[in-house]
């Protein structure tokens, strides 16, 4: 199972989990488009990965909620490398508030990045995968695709929704050799999570240490954060798996926080 020469688009990969997935793919010989809001950061990441990996990377500008920009960026990748084999729809944000205080604009913004982003990027790559008769779509879910937490109504709603989208892509894509799966990580220390620690402490009236030990890691088997490398390994399996046997699934990587 390897990704040698495979063309992969990873959204939100200028930093955090997406960057680690890109690094894992490039180390395995893949051609990876670092698709991010911030073109400078995407290009810098691509340059760094190309220097260190077996494969290569390019940076492309993509706001996943902008249909024209998504289509243009996917076309740019197809023009450059001839097709798309793997999509990792990973771009995401977190906004935490109690439901009664949740600003409607924040609700719409979060749902749009997670759900419209996954829809638009999948819609843009599928015709290329169907033409090739193969492909792997990977959506970045979360333990919050399976479990709820206070303050996270928009995030939990969006992450649950991604399971449904992946299952439909799996059913529609099967006859074209296209698979779709969801990765469900527990807490990973990235900028997205660092930002939540003081916010949750304030909203819940507890210390930052209590947020980490009780809320974020309280349910794990060993009080450990999941790492970006752990998530990248699962993303590698979903991308490189050789047959349609592995489709319509979700894999939880969370130090046992959620078991099923
Ligand atoms: P991060 O903040 O480190 O990285 C997110 C990236 O997405 C950034 O590079 C940002 O520029 C990009 N981005 C944001 N909005 C975008 C948009 N509209 N278009 C294109 N790019 C955009 O976050 P992360 O922790 O690496 O999260 C990545 C994904 O993993 C998210 O979907 C998140 O929900 C999910 N996740 C994270 C954790 C965690 O604990 N960190 C756990 C489970 C799931």
UniProtKB/TrEMBL annotation:
PANTHER family linked to this entry: 3-OXOACYL-(ACYL-CARRIER-PROTEIN) REDUCTASE, 3-OXOACYL-[ACYL-CARRIER-PROTEIN] REDUCTASE FABG
Record family assignment: Belongs to the short-chain dehydrogenases/reductases (SDR) family.
GO molecular function terms listed in the Swiss-Prot or TrEMBL record: 3-hydroxybutyrate dehydrogenase activity
PROSITE patterns on file: ADH_SHORT (PS00061)
Database matches in Pfam families: adh_short
Record's protein name: 3-hydroxybutyrate dehydrogenase
UniProt xrefs under Gene3D superfamilies: NAD(P)-binding Rossmann-like Domain
Superkingdom of source: Bacteria
InterPro entries recorded: 3-OHbutyrate_DH, NAD(P)-bd_dom_sf, Sc_DH/Rdtase_CS, SDR, SDR_fam
Species annotation: Jannaschia helgolandensis
GO biological process: monocarboxylic acid metabolic process
């Amino acid at each position: 199972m390897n990704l040698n020469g495979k063309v992969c688009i990873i959204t939100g990969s200028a930093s955090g989990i997406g960057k680690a997935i890109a690094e894992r793919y490039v180390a395995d010989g893949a051609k990876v488009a670092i698709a991010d809001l911030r073109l400078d950061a995407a290009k810098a990441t691509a340059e760094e990965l190309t220097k260190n990996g077996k494969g290569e990377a390019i940076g492309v500008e993509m706001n996943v909620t902008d249909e024209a920009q998504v289509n243009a960026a996917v076309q740019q990748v197809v023009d450059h490398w001839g097709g798309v084999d793997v999509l990792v729809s990973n771009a995401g944000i977190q906004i935490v508030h109690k439901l009664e205080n949740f600003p409607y604009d924040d609700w719409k913004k979060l749902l749009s990045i997670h759900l419209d982003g996954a829809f638009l990027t999948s819609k843009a790559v599928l015709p290329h995968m169907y033409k090739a008769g193969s492909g792997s779509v990977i959506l970045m879910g979360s333990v919050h695709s399976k479990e709820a937490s206070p303050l996270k109504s928009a995030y939990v709603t969006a992450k649950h929704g991604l399971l449904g989208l992946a299952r439909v892509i799996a059913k529609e894509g099967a006859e074209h050799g296209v698979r779709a799966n969801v990765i469900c990580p527990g807490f990973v220390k990235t900028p997205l999570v660092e930002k939540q620690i003081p916010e949750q402490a304030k909203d819940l009236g507890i210390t930052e240490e209590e947020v980490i030990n009780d809320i974020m890691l309280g349910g794990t088997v060993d009080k450990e954060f999941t790492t970006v490398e752990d998530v990248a390994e699962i993303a590698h399996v979903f991308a490189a798996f050789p047959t349609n046997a592995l489709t319509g699934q979700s894999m939880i990587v969370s130090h046992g926080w959620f078991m099923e």
